[in-house]
């Protein structure tokens, strides 16, 4: 079984629970990055680099 991580960064808004119980992102932006297929090497420094590049 392959495992991978897809970083999704919510920034500039807020999460609200809708009438159906689902969380919706209300506000500014949602950025979805490419899949990181080597989960052994996902680390804080790498994620901070992604965030700084927004």
From TrEMBL:
InterPro entries: PB1-like_dom_pln
A Pfam family matched in the record: PB1-like
Domain PB1-like, residue spans: 1-52
Name assigned to this protein: PB1-like domain-containing protein
Source organism (scientific name): Stylosanthes scabra
């Amino acid at each position: 079984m392959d495992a991978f991580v897809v970083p999704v960064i919510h920034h500039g808004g807020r999460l609200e629970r809708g009438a159906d119980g689902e969380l919706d992102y209300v506000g500014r932006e949602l950025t979805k990055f490419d899949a990181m297929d080597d989960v052994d090497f996902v680390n804080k420094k790498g994620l901070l680099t992604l965030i700084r590049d927004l």
